[in-house]
Amino acid sequence: AKFEGKNKYLFFKSSLSDFIQSRQKLAVELSNAVNSGEIKAYYQPIFELDTERLVGVEVLARWQHPVRGVIGPEEFIPIAEETGLIPKIGGIVTEQALTQCMSWWSQGIPEFKLSINLSARQLNAGAGDELSRMLSETGFPAKNLDVEITESAAMEKSARVVREIGHIGRLGVGVSIDDYGTGSSSIAHLNKLPVSTIKIDRSFVDEITTTNQLNSTAQTIVAMGHSMGISVIAEGVENDEQREYLKKLNCDCAQGYHFCKPLSQDEFRAFLKAS
Ligand code: C2E
Ligand code: CA
Ligand code: CA
Ligand code: CA
């Protein structure tokens, strides 16, 4: 018992340095992966609740690791943010998606909206100019593009961020507030931004059950959005109960495993052809 404390400390110390080492290893691997084309755009369909029509697609980054298989963004986006790789990864995924959509549409597949995720760091790194360049290079119509900015990034009141979001809006690109309800929003600040859509965070969709439908946060968000002329998308819809309730609320669109999980480029193409 005398040595227990010391052993615990040693154990903690070695697992912490293991953790740091594995993160550093991952950071190096990620930087190589970015340069060797292992970052892929995945697509999750978004449906209009009224008609069940596919109206959009959210682009989600995946790392196609040669040994570990497909790695999700929760594991590598934080490292990419820390090491400054995020603008590059965002650019790669966006370029893939814009090019891919142009090719699908040229093959007669009906047009839909494309939503890409932009982090705070990208907003500070001149995301507007880069989007503008990519739109002209690919010929992708700005009106078919939405950028998703998390509520916490959008509520950053720095002049730089407000200006960048304004710039993106003036390109004719839609601005969506992502994970809405998780941060602290000010309506006054929201009104200064060219917001066309808000996305109800999955945690509020999770709350929806048959027994808990009164005065839900989802209901409040839909009402607020519509009062401002903003369209509302619910994310993380996993069952029919949630779909039915959101439809009753007049929520405009939804995405989630209940409809479809994020798909690789080939899977999504097959999905489009079948529907
Ligand atoms: P997000 O923007 O909130 O994306 C939605 C996440 O919910 C995705 O996780 C999606 O796969 C997952 N999801 C969709 N439907 C369901 C459902 O019914 N149930 C559950 N439990 N989950 C569902 P994913 O793909 O792991 O992405 C995680 C986060 O990583 C995203 O959250 C986004 O913040 C970030 N991210 C992904 N791709 C990019 C990117 O290209 N750039 C940037 N900056 N961030 C990205
Ligand atoms: Ca998103
Ligand atoms: Ca989201
Ligand atoms: Ca979310």
UniProtKB/TrEMBL annotation:
It comes from the Bacteria. Residues 23-275 form the EAL domain. Transmembrane segments: none annotated. This is EAL domain-containing protein. The chain holds residues 343 to 617 of 617 of the full protein. It comes from Aliikangiella coralliicola.
